[in-house]
Amino acid sequence: MAFFASILLTPGGWQWWMDAQAVQGTEQNGIISYSYRGTTNSIDDPNSFRTGNRTVYLIPSDPSNAELHNAGNLILDWGTTGGPLLLGTGFVIAGFIRKNQNSRKRRQAAANSSAASFGMGLDSETVRRLIEGQKAHRRNDGDPRRTAQDQSDN
Description:
The protein is α+β, with helices and mostly antiparallel strands. 56% of the residues lie in helices and 23% in strands. β1 (21-28) and β2 (31-36) form a beta hairpin. The longest helix has 47 residues, at 71-117.
């Protein structure tokens, strides 16, 4: 993201990405002459010694500052700026999707575990002992000392 921002936030970065216009020029021995709105300018391509038509890219507000682009450089530029941005965005989206899936699995597991264990918390011996204690409590009118004495007498 920082690399993408550094490219676009340079003084002419936004203009080159958004406002650049293609103009046809004529190349002869590495010098390309082009015309834009009646003004003729030239640009040097030191790696080329061919003759013929050539495309030049310029910003309308400064037509004397032109650049040459070929398909390889254009793909490389977009790949080095847009590629990491798309990759990072993909990782963020994948993280949110995974978080939602994990959250849904945890909720389902909690719902399933509480439904499966309902009514199975006490074993039959504990239930029998508690019921007997309640019956003894009712017989003795709620006096816990009397229940303790009855148990010690038996």
